[in-house]
Design goal:
The chain has 124 residues and is mainly beta. Helices cover 0% and strands 50% of the residues.
Length: 124
């Protein structure tokens, strides 16, 4: 059973930056896909970025390219999402997620494991 704990959300003005962290526990030795989804109020949850700890391959949504960066600290089983040039439309609940495969980050199904979410609010 994988547990995911997010941190780093908050409020920021447009153009600002935030870094989200997701610490995973409850597994050893397995290679998994970890990453982020977000949900804007009233809309469906959407993939932001994923990272496979085995291959190192990343999956990124179009809206994040050039602004967000996903990275990993393998020694801490932690995945980060560095968000820069934030826009009001980035306001959402951001969820850390994990699964054995990265299919969910390319539009196939949903990850099995989820964190509780962390709110990001960007004001204009």
């Amino acid at each position: 059973q994988i547990q995911l704990v997010e941190s780093g959300g908050g409020s920021v003005q447009a153009g600002g930056s935030l870094r989200l962290s997701c610490a995973a526990s409850g597994y050893t030795g397995n290679k998994i896909c970890m990453g982020w989804f977000r949900q804007v109020a009233g809309k469906e949850r959407e993939a932001v970025a994923g990272f496979h700890t085995g291959s190192g391959r990343t999956y990124q949504s179009d809206f994040m390219k050039g602004r967000f960066t996903i990275s990993q600290d393998g020694t801490k089983n932690t995945v980060y999402l560095q968000m820069s040039s934030l826009k009001p439309e980035d306001t959402a609940m951001y969820y850390c997620a994990a699964d054995n495969f990265c299919d969910a980050w390319i539009g196939h199904g949903q990850p099995f494991y989820w964190g509780q979410g962390t709110q990001v609010t960007v004001s204009s």
